[in-house]
Amino acid sequence: MTHWQTTGGLKLAGHLGLPENRRLRALPSVVLCPGFPSAANGGSRAAERIYSLADRIAQNMEWAALVLNYRGCGDSEGDFSLDGWTDDVRSAVDYLNGLEQVEGVWLAGFGIGGALAAHVAQDDSRVRGVATMGSPVDFAHWDLGASGVVEYARSLGIISSPGFPDSVDSWAKAASSIRVDRCAAEIAPRPMLVLHGSNDVEVSPFDARAIAEAHGDAGLRIISGAGHRLHSDPRCIAILLGWLDSQITLIP
After folding, report:
1. How far apart are CA 150 and CA 158, in angstroms?
2. Buried/exposed code over 160-171 (b: 16+ C-beta within 10 A; e: otherwise)
3. Is the Cβ–Cβ distance between 33 and 24 less than 8 Å?
4. How crowded is residue 148: how many other Cβ atoms within 10 Å of its Cβ?
5. For the CA atoms of the chain, what is the radius of gyration?
6. CA-to-CA separations, 232 to 53, 70, 90, 236, in angstroms, rounded
7. Which of 14, 81, 82, 115 falls 20 to 30 Å from 178 in CA-CA distance?
8. What tens-digit pLDDT sequence spans the chain (252 residues)?
9. 139: DSSP letter
10. Sign of CA dihedral 37, 40, 45, 51
């Protein structure tokens, strides 16, 4: 487990995969951004399901691969908020970009993680490319201003501080600023991969099409029969790995 600091001095934890035997002079790197925790594992183990993916990328492809535990998740300090999690993704880019052996940072995210990755990448030129998997085009359906959302987040363990947030309205406001289609337009002409399950009942495949169309040259793949949890779909992972492998030609 590796640690670094994010906004406000919060300590974040992440799983960093590095290749044991290195042939490349410089390592490309990727931040893997998990989706929103589920009731099955809560926030404490939400990111663990993709630790093995980071190790696979590191050992088989010779990349540095960092799985981010957002604030409030795993061993990371703090409480969940969309603007806070956005800062956490940005700080993960800072962390990887600061490693001496790393040359180039990519972002890949599942669900909300893909949306946050695109949101960060739109104005951060250090990000060479973005992959979104089962990601929403916006957060209009979340209704974060509803009081029940905070209680649900507490039940997942991603909000633990008494009295947080000070204002639910202010806490929810960040959702209105994230439009992944607009982010995609700003990311172009940097490469983008958009993956989605045809049977995703949580986020419509039309969201993926809107994101890809806004980018203009994104690789769009709708995976037949797949649902929302693409981290466990081997076809999704194979496409992601192939896309990442194609990116190393972009390293000078």
Report:
1. 10
2. eeeebbeeeeeb
3. no
4. 8
5. 17
6. 10, 20, 25, 8
7. 14
8. 899 998 789 999 999 999 987 665 789 999 999 999 987 668 988 899 999 999 999 999 999 999 999 999 999 999 999 999 999 999 999 999 999 889 999 999 999 999 999 999 999 999 999 999 999 999 887 777 666 788 889 999 999 999 999 988 888 888 888 999 999 999 999 999 999 999 999 999 999 999 999 999 999 999 999 999 999 999 999 999 999 999 987 555
9. S
10. negative
Two tokens at 92? 């993960």
**Token pair belonging to 53:** 């993916």
Question: Parallel, antiparallel, or unpaired: how do β-strands 64-69 and 102-110 relate?
Answer: unpaired
**Which two tokens mark 100?**
């001496």
Single-letter amino acid code for the residue at 50? I
Task: Provide the residue count of the chain.
Answer: 252
Q: Where are the beta strands (DSSP E) in 164-249?
A: 192-197, 219-223
